[in-house]
Amino acid sequence: MITVFIVDDSSLMHKALKKILDPEPDIDIVGTATNGREALEKIPGLKPRVVITDLLMPVMDGFELVKELMQSHPVPILVVSAVVTPDITRGETFRILEMGAMDILPKPGMGTEEDNLIWKRQLINKIKVLSGVMPITRRSASGRSFQAPAPLKTPPVIPDASVQEIVCIGASTGGPIALKEIFSSLPGSFAYPVCCAMHIYEGFTEELISWLRSYAHLKIVKARNHHPPEPGYIYFPEDNTHLTFDGGGRFILTPSISTDLHKPSVDLLFQTAARAFGPRLTAVLLTGMGRDGAQGLLEVKNAGGRTMAQNEASCVVFGMPKEAIQLGAAQHVLSISQIISQLLLLG
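RESULT FIELD:
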């Protein structure tokens, strides 16, 4: 049974979440609170497997609650808030992830019945995934860059590093923190362009880029259609597009559609990069739920490129890397610090 604790000052939200979760046979709401202080008093005794919290609340808000929980009672935290929208948060979304929350979900707006159904499925899926995640101790939000360790004493050999031309990275749940660690460790002199497909809600790409820029030494920009990637830059796609390449290695921003499961698609990034760059490509698959990127990583390997997958111990969610490993797509299974070391050896 997945035990859930809900923290929200809205009685309507309590009722809405109860209506959604009560029919689920493997989910049980074991407690509720209307603010962070009340939650801190109840959670240690109830020991829920997942905490759902709003951000703006009286007495103690969600930011302080996450900070306190990750110090005293680490537990997977899902932020469900109307504040989680790019026009309101202005960077706060990713600060709450730095503090230890594992995932975010904007509260539903006045959408269609289909939109509401999709939101309910997302909520239930996130709860089920996070219930199996080991709590992570509080992450620093001090703004200090992650310090990459020295190269492994016996590093996995990545052959023909001299012919590398591009690095592609895919991520989902837990990805922002992993990307922050990688980008804060790559020097401004890193010799290869870096292209990223990070599953993200519509409207949040600019906020993600802005937040990552405060840590990165390379320039972070949105890719431009029909332009080639250049060294010194980290590229993300525009909202509602997939980042892909044409046969000549130039960016093609392919519009996504409402039925696409993953936006942007890691598989599409890896697959088109494999065809364009072949052995000149290094592909890295990071933490995330689902299987997006696994098939693409296999195509990179088959095209002669180098492939890495994040290991279970350093992932927030081991879904995507696990699928790639099971396919035989990952030549190297590494911790996030080991991935950083290998990228530093390239550049």
